[in-house]
Design brief:
The protein is mainly α. The protein contains four helices and two strands, in the order H-E-H-E-H-H. 51% of the residues lie in helices and 8% in strands. The two termini are 18 Å apart.
Length: 97
């Protein structure tokens, strides 16, 4: 989590996931139409397949979309965080529960 959504933030998060899990085969990941360029090249180099479809069609990402919708409804939109670290901890607690 960061104050801005930059490609480097996503690549860093994906690098940690690949390093920790060390997938032996290609893995599909949730992405959106805004994902392109360096991100797509990095995915290809690391045997990750971005799952995206045409605009307005989220069915291929339904599980991920459902998770983020629940996270927002159940946790994030119900609170005002004083500090970014507090928000990070709360989101990580939600994910690990």
């Amino acid at each position: 989590m960061n104050a801005t959504m930059a490609t480097e933030l996503v690549l860093d998060a994906m690098m940690i996931a690949v390093w920790r899990r060390r997938p032996k085969a290609s893995v599909m990941i949730h992405s959106d139409l805004g994902s392109q360029g360096a991100f797509n090249r990095w995915c290809k180099d690391n045997r990750l397949i971005p799952s995206m479809n045409r605009r307005g069609n989220c069915w291929d990402n339904a599980v991920a979309e459902s998770f983020f919708s629940s996270l927002k409804k159940e946790r994030v939109k119900r609170r005002i965080y004083a500090y970014r670290q507090e928000e990070k901890s709360d989101v990580f607690d939600y994910i690990l529960d």
